[in-house]
Each structure stands twice: as C-alpha cells, then as structure tokens.
Amino acid sequence: MKFHHVGMVVRSVSVAESLCRERLKDHEPLVWGPVPAFQCAVAFSTRFAMIEFVVPEPDSKLVKFLGGKSVLHHVAFAVDDVRNPLPFSQSDLIFGEPAIAPVQKLLVNFVKPLEGLLVEVVEEIRELGT
Q: Which CATH number does the domain housing residue 30 bear?
C-alpha cells in the first residue's frame, strides 16, 4: 500500500480551476471525467497528480452531507487489489463492488470511516472493461 492522492470536494469546476491556476500555479487544463457511482465528476492536477478535485452533482449525497462546502474529503492509497485491499479487510469496505474512475483508469472503493477519517483505496487498471 502506498499513498496515491488527497481528494478535495469543491463546489464547482470553476473553483477547482481557480485553485489550480492561482494556488498551485498549474496552468494546464484539468481533464474531467464522471464517476456515476458516486454522483460526481473528478479531475487531477497535471502538475500535482496527487491532488484530486471532486465536484458533486447537485443531488449527490456529498452535497447533502457536506452542506455545499469545499472540504478536504479523503486520503487515497494504492493497493494491488481493491476488492481485497490489504492491510484493510473486505469487511472494512463501504461498497460491495468498486466504482470505475475513468479519468485515471482506477477502480475505487472506500473504507468505512474511523473517527471521521475517510480513506479511499484505488487500483490502477489497464483496461476499463476489467
């Protein structure tokens, strides 16, 4: 298991773009992609690939849960097998099946929060059909 990225939920694409340009000095355009299972779109910074921007759809559970605020949402770790994410166990996972995040060709799931800390586990995939 190794560190993969930090996920930040932001209110809009324009907020993410501004953060990239003004704070991170990353002037490359963000490439957005949907994650339907989580009702959001995500993008990674070109200059800092360890930063993920998450923009929830208006009716997403994320909007309701976070009250529309921009927040640091999760820390993600790369694992060899997202269905058996050692050192976590399968019973620690929130969802029965991982979701596909096509922007970076990832399978993703979340570990049940402990003391409010949300951890995502990701597995890099070669083909999106897997």
A: 3.10.180.10
Please write the tens of the pLDDT for every residue from 35-73: 999 899 999 988 898 999 999 998 887 777 777 778 888
Task: Decide if 16 is inside a domain.
Answer: yes
Asked whether residue 130 is assigned to any structural domain, the reply reads: no
Q: How far apart are CA 12 and CA 77, in angstroms?
A: 25
Q: What is the pTM for the complete model shown?
A: 0.86
**At which residue do the structure tokens 């897997």 appear?**
130
Residues 6+ apart with CB under 8 A from 76: 3, 4, 5, 6, 7, 52, 108, 119, 120, 121, 122
Give the pLDDT confidence of 8-37 residue by residue, as tens digits.
999 899 999 999 999 999 999 898 999 999
Q: Give CA separation, 22 vs 18, 27, 28, 46, 56, in Å.
A: 6, 9, 12, 14, 22
CA distances from 44 to 21, 93, 118 (A): 13, 24, 19
Q: pLDDT value at position 129?
A: 52
Q: Domain range for residue 38?
A: 2-124
> Does residue 129 sit within a domain?
no
